[in-house]
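new request in #modeling-help
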Amino acid sequence: MKLLLPILALLAGLLTARLVRRYVVEGRSMLRAYAPGDRLIVEALTYRLRSPRVGEVVVVRQAGASGRLGLKRIAAGPGAQVTVRGEEWYLGNDEWFVQGDNLSESTDSRRLGPVSRRDIAGRVWFRY
Amino acid sequence: MNFVSPVLRLFDRVAPPETVSAHCDIPCGIYDPHAAQIAALTVLRMDQLIEGLTTEGAARENSFVRYVKVKEEHGEIVKRELNILWHDYFRPEHLEKYSDLHTTFWNANKLASRNKQNVDVAAATELLTATNRIAEIFWETKGVATRKAGSNQAVGGELVYVDNK
């Protein structure tokens, strides 16, 4: 419990600086990892220091989705061969292929194409 | 991070978090009112269980808290599932045929809130009726026949089902 105050102060600081943000999940495309109504802390620090990694869950702005923020998992990164709308595609230097875990109920890079790092708002840190 | 969650939840009460979409409303077109109906049925069942509590002491308190928790959660599920239909499925052309559609959804949402605020079997029955009515409208817009039948659950009540005959 000695850590409580410092951790809370750190969180409050990060929230104020908008380096971490609070989100609530809507929809089923990330089931079973994340269910509708789950509350998440998403941080924007990690990707300032390093590239995204396959398997990480991120908040992305997806083209063609009216600019709405989506919750997806990074399925492939630069150099990987993927299929977008039935066509083979090699991911470029700043192209990331994101998918929902619940593949049958997800709109993602399979249809919308890859996202760039600029479109990744942050990485899911923890659920609260 | 268990001790952090309550504080963050408190933040959420003051300033709600942003919504991040994990909903596939672009190509999948999968909508179904059944989740809202089942959640409404659950709210009704919780009211019945709360009113039927007979034990005393800690056991009663424990059961009471559990029932209220589930009632609260399923009241919220009703609202969420109905709102997905309202916002994402229904379109302006549906309003031409169902001119009171907005009022229907609005009232159902308010009813769901009322059920969260109270223990009221009559209000829960009303909520079930409201979700059934929305299910009827939903399936009608898809040209699918429906029928009313008993839920076949301990709670009783009727549900609107797709009639595949």
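bot summary: The interface with chain B takes residues 1, 4, 7-8, 11, 15, 21-31, 34, 36-37, 39-42, 59, 64-65, 68-71, 100, 104-107, 111, 126, 128 of chain A (CB under 8 Å).
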